Recover the amino acids of this structure.
């Protein structure tokens, strides 16, 4: 079975289990366009240009996941100390680490532990079941109003969700100072002025 066939099988299995296309996109680290194609395979439609990232060997191992969290922290600290990042007026460090549900939350929790920060959880609008979907911060974790925040996720696929989080935080009186991700599939330097720090930049050469 080819990698593409495996992705089609996995996408359809997740859909059959009740996952929405947006949840499948998060699970497989793919764009919505790619997931739609995997589920429908419309005749005459070209296969979307995308890169599948399977980091489950790390994400399923607590020790390896903790090492990845430390790598993100050290990468940011090195950039700050070298002067390679423009520091916000109130400093580059954060009092709240905001994990994007679901994949960013384990990383954010470990980072918050190492940074002696609080942890918040953001639910993107695409996961909302409302007829007018909106994103939200979970009331069971830290609040963000008046706090400096670092946003954490595993993969940048399109950047739309991260842009949504930045807008939400600013609208609610928070100051997003940085975005940390493991994999950047877009080569994004910043999102609405918030610098992006990724361990790996993924490029597709055609």
């Amino acid at each position: 079975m080819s990698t593409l066939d495996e992705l089609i099988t996995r996408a359809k299995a997740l859909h059959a289990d009740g996952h929405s296309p947006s949840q499948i996109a998060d699970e497989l680290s793919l764009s919505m366009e790619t997931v739609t194609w995997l589920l429908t395979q419309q005749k005459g439609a070209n296969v979307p240009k995308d890169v599948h990232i399977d980091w489950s060997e790390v994400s399923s191992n607590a020790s390896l996941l903790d090492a990845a969290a430390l790598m993100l922290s050290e990468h940011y600290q090195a950039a700050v100390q070298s002067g390679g990042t423009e520091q916000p007026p109130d400093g580059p460090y954060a009092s709240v680490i905001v994990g994007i549900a679901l994949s960013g939350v384990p990383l954010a929790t470990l980072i918050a532990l190492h940074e002696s920060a609080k942890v918040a959880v953001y639910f993107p609008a695409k996961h909302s079941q409302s007829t007018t979907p909106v994103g939200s911060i979970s009331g069971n974790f830290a609040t963000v109003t008046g706090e400096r925040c670092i946003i954490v996720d595993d993969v940048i696929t399109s950047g739309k969700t991260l842009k949504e989080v930045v807008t939400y935080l600013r609208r609610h009186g928070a100051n997003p100072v940085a975005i940390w991700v493991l994999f950047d599939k877009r080569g994004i330097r910043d999102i609405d002025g918030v610098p992006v720090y990724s361990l790996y930049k993924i490029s597709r050469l055609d």
Q: What stands out?
A: The first strand starts at residue 96 and ends at 100. Helices lie at 3-16, 21-28, 32-40, 56-59, 62-81, 104-115, 160-171. The chain has seven helices and seven strands. The mean pLDDT is 86.
